[in-house]
User: What shape does this take?
Amino acid sequence: MKLLDLQLKDLLLIALTVSTIFVLGYILIPLMQFMPLPAYKAIIVSPIYAGGLTLLAKKIPKFGISSLLGLLIGILLSGFFIGMFFIAFFGGILTDLFSLILFRGYRSKGGIIFSSAFFPAIQLPLTFYMAAYTIGGVSGEALKHPLLVILPTILTFVLGYFASLGTYRLLDRRNL
Assistant: This one.
């Protein structure tokens, strides 16, 4: 059984989606500078990540699509901080497993929307742990107060959920 059997049009869609996510995220960097902790930057990019994964999961509903998206985003983000590679890739793997266990993959609308919201949301606590382990300081202290991690993670999930829902509805309306 092949994990991902992709055609040329699938590869082009993945490349365009990853590049769009990266460019939109890069445009938001000035806004991200106002975030008190590095991990909170996931809140700002969560609608972009969720919308991108929704597009890919709806058009290429194959197990491993989140891992591939995380891998490619991680490669691009590793230029800023090598830990971002591991965060994005591991977030993609966890999202694929979440989708497989709870929804049997990306077969249903609910599975796509929840998995797409989960993708950016799981990266926030992963970023906290990576920053606490590598940098320490404020990020390490934040882990001593679980609400500083749990509440932003929930907010990230909610933003991702609504972005994913909107993207899914837009794709349905356009028959894409």
